[in-house]
Structure formats: C-alpha cells, structure tokens
Amino acid sequence: MAALLLLGPVALTVWRTGSGKPLSVILTAVGVVALVTMGVTMLAPARLRTLTRTFGIDRIIGTHRWLGIAAIVAALVHLAVAVVRSPKLWNPFAASLSIQWGWLATTAMVAVGLVAAWGRRSGRRYEVWARVHALLAAAAIVLAGLHVFWLGNLLEDPVMRVVLSALILGFLAVLFLRWVWRPLFSRHGAYVVYGVRPEGPSTATLVLAPVHLQRGMRFHAGQFVWLRLRRSVLGSEEHPFTIASSAQITGRLELTVRGSGDFSTTLASLPPGSRVWLDGPHGSFSATPEAPGLVLIAGGVGITPMMSMLRTLADSADPRPLHMVVAQRPDEPLFEPELASLARRLDLRITRTSGRRVDAALLDEVIPGRGRRHLDWFVCGSPSLLAGSLAAIEQLGVPAERVHSEQFGWSGAIPVQRNRRVSTP
Q1: Other beta carbons within 10 Å of 169
Q2: pLDDT at res. 12
Q3: What is the pLDDT of residues 268-295, one digit of tens each?
Q4: pLDDT at res. 232
Q5: DSSP character string of 181-226
Q6: Of 11, 47, 104, 380, whose Cβ has the fewest other Cβ atoms within 10 Å?
Q7: How many CB atoms lie within 10 A of CB 146?
Q8: How far apart are CA 116 and CA 113, in angstroms?
C-alpha cells in the first residue's frame, strides 16, 4: 500500500508533466515524492489499529523511520535541482513567497530528522521529544502544502488537482482521528479505575472497567494500549502498557505496571473511581490457533503479555503443550501463586532460571528434541534478555517465522516488537 501511495502520484505527475523540459520534470517528480512521502510517514505513527495488528508495531515504526529519511532526502534533492536550474533561488530572502515556503518546509524536515535522532538516545524524555517531533512534522507538511499552493503549477492541471486534493483530505482525516477525535471525543477508550492490586514491592496491577461500553475493549492476548490520565491533544503525557488480563473477559481490563518512573508510580497510586483514557489495542505479539504449542520466555515485567496469553488459554480450555521460562528478580517473583494455579488448568511447564542465563543449553534442557522447531516461541523482556534468548533460539534451529519478540524500551514499558513471522497481507 505504501508503494502504491508513493509511486502512484509520482507516475501520474510524470505523465501529466512529461512534455516539459527534463530538469523541470525531475524537479516536479522529486518534489511530489517528498510531499507524498511526508504524508505517508505521518500515517505510520497514527496508530491505525488495522495496521498495527497486521504488521506489528516494530514494522510500522521501522517503516516510519525509513520513509522519514526518504522524505528528507527527496526534499533536499528537490531543493538542489531547483537551485541548479535557477541559481538565484539559493538566496531565499530574495525569492518569491512560494520559494520561501519551500525553504522553510525543507528546514523543518531536516529538524524533524535531527530531533528524531536526538530523541532515540538513551536518557531523553520520550514525551518531550515526541511532541516536538510531531509539531515539527506537522509544520513541515503544512509549509510544503503552502509551497505547492503558492507555486500553482501542479494545481493548474485538473487531474493533479483532484488527486492531490484527495490525498490531502485523506491525510487530514487520519490525523484528525489520531490527534483530535480519539484524545478528546472518543467514548471507546474511557475507563475508570476499579482497583489497584499489588503484585510485588515495585509492581502493581491496575484493574480498569469501561465507562460507556458494556463489553469493553476487544483485544488479542499480548496486545498493548496507550494510557493517558486526562484528555487533551498534546498536553497530556501518555505511555504504552501491555494488557495482562484474559482476552475472554472484556468487561475488565488489567495492566500490570512496574514503578520505574513518575508516570507509572502515579498509576499505582490512583484511587478507585479515577478516570483514564486508553488508545488501543495495538500490536501483533499474539499466538495463533494454528500453533501446535507455545514456548514463552519472560524477563521481569515482560511476563505481562505472557500472563494475558496464559489466562486466555486457560479460559478457553486450550489443550496445547506450553513451556514457560521465567527470568525474574528473586525478591519479586511476579504471579507465582497464579502461575501454579494455571499449571494445573493447562498443559504448562514452568522453568525459573534462578539467575542462570537464558542460553541454548538451558533451552535445550527445557524443550529437548526436534519437535521444538514446530512450536511458536515468544520472548519478552529487556534488550539483554532478547539478545541472548534470540541467539539461543537461532542456535537450536528454530525457523525465524516461528519466533516473536517484544522489547521493553528505555523510555519506559514501551513495547517495541520484533515479530519475525513472515507476513503476507
């Protein structure tokens, strides 16, 4: 779909303007590439649930990153070709208003890339740089639109005018849904705190009930939601948390949170009756009914999506064999009593590492034999756990399409999924 959105307008542009000088055609085509790529790039983080369920959040964010780089490169090439064709454009202060809009749009796009690179460094506050990143991106696409409008050459063609208008309206509709409707008006994500259940010294489970819907949110075990404490467009801090409750019970939603910062600590102390707002569900870190069995490797609070899977499987009386490897702090054995109960309801074997590294030798002991190649493997936890576990799974000869992983990032419990299943949507 991304290729169609990008190449379709470009091909149409070349067809409608191909009778001009070659340099002018190149200039226009590259400009359209930059403009459309900017628009598609802004769709990637718009949290369209169909996309996040189909491709996984990691692919969406990865595509967003590469499309952003492509948009910046295309804008710089467009600027360079324009200056080569007309050297006087090098001085924007002496150029027309349309050219000044173009210079400002290119500057804003470069700033978007710089802010993104700065924000990915460990220690940067996610909510700060993410808002700056979004505002700069919005400014870039608005300025680019003003550049096209004031220049007027594309809009003179009736076909291009219709196509560009349709694309702009589509982008605006998606952005309105993401940044205005859901944060301010949607009734779907309104929840009330039913209670807070302690799980350990620094971990608690937030039990939520829907405000407006009787059945609540429908989700797949392993998915996550974004949570905010108040309704606003950009002024409210929000963070993603994996759903821990069973997907069979939609009248109640549970999020297990570790107090690793001000936001998560605030959540753990919310009194009953407090309102929160959820955006979701998102993600594709979910087991399929076709898998003959599952291997679940969890580190710390990374056990959260695994608990959702196990609770869902238990509620549906699933008979498949399940193997679980748990690497946790000895002073905080999360869900230990419930895991013992689930082991009696399911064909579940639990192995606690007790400080031992998750490597090929350990996994070979837990799941011996060639049958492990046919199981679906799920890994969730810190980057170090993922690195070691994924390397060990590869050593065991498990096909890559059966391995799924979710990493909890530096900016909090941000699920960054690396679902290695081959997807053919």
Answers
A1: 10
A2: 63
A3: 888 999 999 998 888 888 888 888 999 9
A4: 74
A5: IIIII-STTEEEEEEEEEEETTEEEEEEEESS-SS-----TT-EEE
A6: 11
A7: 17
A8: 5
Integer Cα distance of 99 and 202 in angstroms: 56
Q: Give ∠ CA 175-176-177 in degrees, rounded to 5.
A: 90
Most confidently predicted of 28-42, 111-125, 333-347: 333-347
Check residue 157 and give its pLDDT. 74
Of the candidates 85, 66, 57, 94, the one whose C-alpha atom is nearest the C-alpha of residue 6 is 66
Cβ-contact 281, 253 below 8 angstroms? no
Distance CA 217, CA 243 (A): 11
Residue 423 is predicted with a pLDDT of 30
376 touches 288 (CB < 8 A): yes
| φ/ψ of residue 212, rounded to 5 | -105, -25
Give me the residue label for tokens 């590469």.
66
Among the listed residues 393, 373, 260, the one whose alpha carbon sits nearest the alpha carbon of residue 325? 393
Tell me: pLDDT of 156 over 60. yes
> What does the alpha-carbon distance between residue 271 and residue 279 come to, in Å, rounded to a whole number?
21
| DSSP-assigned letters across all residues of 377-393 | EEEEE-HHHHHHHHHHH
Q: How far apart are CA 124 and CA 153, in angstroms?
A: 43
Question: For residue 3, what pLDDT is reported?
Answer: 57
- Residue 4 burial by CB count (10 A; 0-12/13-18/19+): exposed, middle or buried? exposed
The mean of the pLDDT values for the chain is: 82
d(CA 234, CA 390): 37
- Residue 103 tokens read as 């210079």
Tell me the one-letter amino acid at 81: V
**Confidence category of residue 124, pLDDT binned at 50, 70, 90:** low
Q: Per the structure block, which two tokens stand in for 161?
A: 């005018």
Among candidate residues 111, 106, 146, the one with its CA nearest the CA of residue 132: 111
User: Tokens for 369?
Assistant: 């034999």
* pLDDT band, residue 35 (cuts 50/70/90): confident
Higher pLDDT, 262 or 172: 172
Task: Evaluate if residue 413 carries a pLDDT over 60.
Answer: no
CB 216 within 8 A of CB 271: no
As beta bridge partners, residue 238 has 228
CB-CB neighbours of 89 under 10 Å: 17
Structural domains of the chain ordered from first start: 2-185 (1.20.120), 190-282 (2.40.30.10), 294-419 (3.40.50.80)
pLDDT average, residue stretch 325-350: 88
Token pair belonging to 259: 């107090």
- DSSP label of 168: H
What is the structure's pLDDT at 36? 83
